[in-house]
Fold this protein.
Amino acid sequence: MFWKTTARSVPRISFTTAAAVALLSAGASSPALPNPLSAQPHEGIAQLEASIFHTDVIPAPCHPNPRSQADMAGLAQRGDVRRTPRPLKERLIRLAGRPHTFLPIQTFAEADSPSLLFQYYLLDTRGFEPNVFTSIFPGINDAVMLTATGGVCGIPTIGSVRLALEPKPDLPTDPNDVRAFIDVFTDIDPLFVINNESGWYEGWMIHDLGVAPVGPARGDGHAGFGTLIQQDADLLRAMGTGNNVFGHLFTTDGKDPRLPSEADRFPDIQSNLVPIFLSMGAYNAMQQSDVHSYWEFNYTTDWVFPLYELPFTGGIPGTFEPGSIGRLSSLVPGSGPQGVRNNPVIYGDNPSLPRDPDKFDGDDDAQREFRNRFIPSGLAHEIYLDVYERLASFEPDAPFPQRLFDAYAAEVDRVDQNGDGVISAVEGDVDSASDGFIDNARLFLPATSFNRFAVTREINDGYLAPRFAPSQRAWILTGSAIPVTPAVPASEGRDGDDR
């Protein structure tokens, strides 16, 4: 299919209410876009009140799922879905009723006991400023093929993300423990397949920076790990309307937190939160525009992009117009513009020994990867404390982005053991010691602290950061974390290789 038509509104349909009840009882100068308020969303808007067996009417000339009722009934009884909370179950069943290449991913147990669902996200295309991937703008993309949302004749693009803990006997069973092993399952529909320039979709768990507590200073006067000194706290409290006190989300203006919104207008009106993005890896769509992805969350993967990329993504207001986009590369690992710059022959992607960040654990430390571009998520959090909250204890007169570059180099240096400006697999291991601590558990944010989720439409720009980060200019879906307390068994069958 070459021509991808524009969207239209579509209704919802429900099947077999009685059967559903029974199943439930079982378990700056750049060109501006036109005003998005006049834009037509790709997704349909005529939606009926949801019930467990609701799915979507597929408008002609697209074709409905001929097995819709059977697929929904079968999925509702599947062991990894049967006991899930109703909103999640409704979303998964709705996806199953649509045309699809595959049903929502099945969660297989990784231990003798079932995997435990403890958190999920429900995704849609609202909650951020409309963009060319999610909306039609007159004169911009109203006479060209659609490339992300708008598939299957305009049915809404929706999705879900499930987090299930592996209850292995030698691993923690508390998802707040950074040593826990967690499986992440993403199901989205519809998204068009990305064909050109090696593009992809990418999921991101998002942790919003909170205001740190006051603690004792280090010997050099710098705040201790994860804390502020009192002078920092006093300056934060004086910002804006006084929001920036311990226990609150940090805001860049000191006012009440404001999440991304459909009313945002880049670059002038943006969220005042400071997000930390954790990548779920790259994926693409299937033939029938359904998308499915599996990812593993643990201390070997809870690592984020080098933050010094941010001033070069084009997503910070005022950085695109002077031509900053793409100006700096992190292709050769190091600690950024103010840190260590390494020899590409030693730290670059060597054809005789390809760089492989997945070579994390091993019995021979010499074989574990030492050329990592990314850093542990909790270390990114520490860098952001320097940049945004330690207004007295860290370079009080330094402007952005110098504060970011200096903080990145300084905090990496505290963990880096050999002075190469890189956190190797050995140096970043959760059981390694650094900076006077007996281990590195502090360097990792737990899965439960990632309060939001987003999916972006990526292109191969050479960066690990989200496209146009920290803005939402390439977002196509988002949703907030929903805890499941207590966690519920949510797996069926056994993984063939559950080591």
